[in-house]
Request: fold
Amino acid sequence: RPIIFWFRNDLRLGDHPALTAAVKTGAPIIPLYILDEDAGGRWKAGSASRWWLAKSLEALGRDIALRRSRLILRRGETVRELKRIVEETDAQAVYASRRYDPSSVDLEAKLHKAFSARDIGFKRFGGVLLREPEEVRNGSGEPYNVFTPFWRAFRREFAPSNALPAPEHLTPVSKQISSDCLSDWNLLPTKPDWSGGLADTWTPGEAGAQSRLRDFVSKALPNYDAGRDRPAANQTSRLSPYFAFGEISPASC
Reply:
């Protein structure tokens, strides 16, 4: 029975604890991304974010295809679509990375309850943050309320781990699984297509994130103390969108 690997804001294969754990089971993996346009409530994705998502999913799909698998795309309400694909594939579990905003926490609790009742695993993993929120506590065992003591404790306790390698192979399922076509989602701007400047400046995807990191380390990092105060001089990392879409992990930096 396969494992559904549910991609969220972790659109990469390297240094991915949840994906690594899924692959280690030896089960066939079904890579899945769900476009749930109502999940954000009033925080709807803007046009630039939709452009980036389209390009990032294209890149992720190519990387998955190189590992003899296929990225499945579904559009709709998250719980409904996850239940539907579990039923279609007789999956034994759903693996995913944790998210921390209130709506995502509620969603994960709902999914855990729904799948547990059907004897289907729902497993969450870290990998989006350097440390999980519950791991850093003050002397009383409570979360820190002031940044400076939190930062001191974090630096004192934190030991960076080696980045996990991307899997060389993703065992596919033998059954044909229906998938949306990315172009049908209409994420890219048309009439007019104003994205030329974005495309000239940015390369969404895991490879683009790694290239940006190498460029920052070799060119801007030596002068970062002073350069960070002059953003017009291109002395900052410019990694924010890559972190936002999870195309690079904090630990790999």
Residues 216 and 222 are 9 Å apart (CA to CA).
